[in-house]
Amino acid sequence: MADHASSGRRASDSGAVEPRMWTPVVDQHATWIAVNPVQGCPKKCTYCFLNERGQAAVPPKHLVSAEESVELLVNSSFYGPLRPVALYTWTDVMALPASRAHLADLLEELVRQQVRNPVVLITKCHVPDETIEVINAARHRGVTVLVYLSYSGLGRDIERGIRHDAIAENFPRLAEAGIPIVHYWRPAFPESADLERMRIVLGHAARYARCTVAAGLKVEKGALARLAQVWPELATTAGVIEAEGVYPRGFWEFIHRTWQRHPGYPLFHTNSCALAYVLGRPDFFGVFGSQVCRMRNYCPIAQRERCTVADAERIPPTAADVRAALARRALGEAPFTLAEDGRELVIDAVVDTNLAAALTQDLGVRVRVVRDDADAYWSSGTAGATPVIVG
Ligand code: SF4
Fold first, then answer.
1. Which CATH number does the domain 2-311 belong to among 3.40.1280.10, 3.40.50.1820, 3.20.20.70, 3.40.50.1370?
2. Residue 211 Cβ < 6 Å to ligand 1
3. Is the pTM of this model over 0.85?
4. For ligand 1, atom 5, which residue shows the shortest CA distance?
5. Which of 47, 106, 235, 361 is least surrounded, with the fewest CB atoms within 10 Å of its CB?
């Protein structure tokens, strides 16, 4: 992650961070490989990590072509043919025609090179009809595309530049076109943790989406003062920076009881489980049997059966398997223990979050590591961080 860092950053008079920081075009995030050929977002959501990187409220920059993007992806050390791939996580690809044109080229390139990884697109902008057609053209030629619709009941004070009526309208439009939708419900602020507002959000999503992924607010050290302007308790609550996510209590309680309102509608607290469910796969992130699996995720019976069968057939990695996997990630000397019947790997060394996430998929186990405070990634539940509930 070293190339995330950019020296000599300073705040301009407008408060924007300069210069812009760039992320590698291909990198491993907690659940998916992220591919970012276009970086920078014209929108400016208060909670967005791009604010700290000088990449919010800026014109998106096209760094590499669609063809180069696919080449970088398949040649990356993080690549595996089954691994989920999220495109354009450092911009909102639906925001501008040029970004959508890049997406059209990239989907075409995935078709042409017969890359069949599941593809995730995440947006809170209007998805135009012609882009729906582009997505479906790729789907009909063998590329699995899921669209995560960010819809959290927040106002324009927090999600600046976002048209919330357009987000809501995306749901029936994409569902009508047969595109699998995951409702991305994150983050929540006290203003959106209002019971009526949460009922409306969930009710709308449950009509059209395959499932909801609910998550808290990620709080980086550099963002704390800014975020505390809209949520003052953040400044006085211990552990918010280390947390997997921070949740207003009302939201936390609501998202753990959605089954009462929508009994047939799944809600996950782990993105990997939502993907497993929509893709018809068992868990391969070491979540099965964990407290999140048993107590928090509202996971359908058929999916639980799928994971149960896969777990019964699973052969846990041996110490030699782990040593070989660590060596492949240049962590050959790191001391480790295998815990919980081979379901959890504890590495007693500082390991970058992207490598820990890659090891999770290499071995199919949860991975706990000593976190590097300079790591450009925020704390991840996949890497062992826990939630903080406020209120
Ligand atoms: S059974 Fe557990 S591990 Fe499997 S998808 Fe459901 S919640 Fe996740």
1. 3.20.20.70
2. no
3. yes
4. 273
5. 235
